Amino acid sequence: MYLKILGRLNLLINWDKSFVLASITPFGAQNSPKSTQNQPSSTSASQRDSGTFGNSLTSSNNPQYGSSVEYMALMSKQSAARILNKTANFFLYSYYSEKEQYTVAVAGQDRFILFLQLLKIRQIGPKLAVQISEFFDSVEEFLNIVAQHDIDSLAKVPGLGKKKAALLVWHFSQADGKSFLESQQLLGADMNARIFQDIINTLVALGVKTRQAKDIVLAKKQILLDSINNGEKDIGKLVALILKDMKR
């Protein structure tokens, strides 16, 4: 279960050595530092000691400061420091078990897609998945490290270690993980992702098998990027371009 919010990261409170409790105000909502700090239950000692934080939505209606709506969630310290006081797309993921409940926040769709993939690995829970998805400068850097089987670099992620890093590399060498890795390398987790996917869908509609369509686009990625960067966005023309190039 997750929620997507376009909002601003306003307040950070230390939670433990790896996480902060972050206050996220949805874009367009009123907010004031005083009303944010007056949330009485956001950092109670019992919550911190038990490691639980299940209710991510808080609000206040103070006549002196006006109304505010906030989402409180755990974020990695590295990510929070990078986007403090900035507006971004936040993905809030709530986790519930008999032992604990909490909400984590991941900033950026590409990192959240990686976060969801990491949750498929049995030994990696939401908190560790957040740490991994937010640790590297970009998702592309992470993908390159995994593709190179660089366990030492992966093991630098707090809480991962070499044993789980090796498990992570193994996951991305298997069918589901390998398919994800290849698709993300293809799409580049950038603004051209939708165009590439539309090209793949068009090739499939023309009778090409999905696996083959992905391989074709991956092989012709540079030709497509050159054309897109020159202003060509018409899917039909881009498909015709790679088909013509294949006939050479």
Note the gap between the termini. 48 Å
Largest sheet: 6 strands, antiparallel
**How many domains make up the 3D coordinates?**
3
Helix content: 40-55%
- Going by helix content, strand content and strand pairing, the class is alpha+beta
Q: Roughly what is the average pLDDT, rounded to an integer?
A: 77
The stretches of 5 or more residues where confidence is low (pLDDT under 50) are 29-55, 58-67
The proportion of residues in beta strands is 15-25%
Summarize the structure.
It contains 13 helices and six strands.
Commentary on this structure:
The protein folds into three domains: 107 residues, no CATH class; 80 residues, 5' to 3' exonuclease, C-terminal subdomain (DNA polymerase, domain 1, Orthogonal Bundle); 56 residues. Helix content is 48%, strand content 22%. The chain has a six-stranded antiparallel β-sheet with strand order 3-4-2-1-5-6. A hairpin with a 4-residue loop joins strand 1 and strand 2. The termini are far apart.
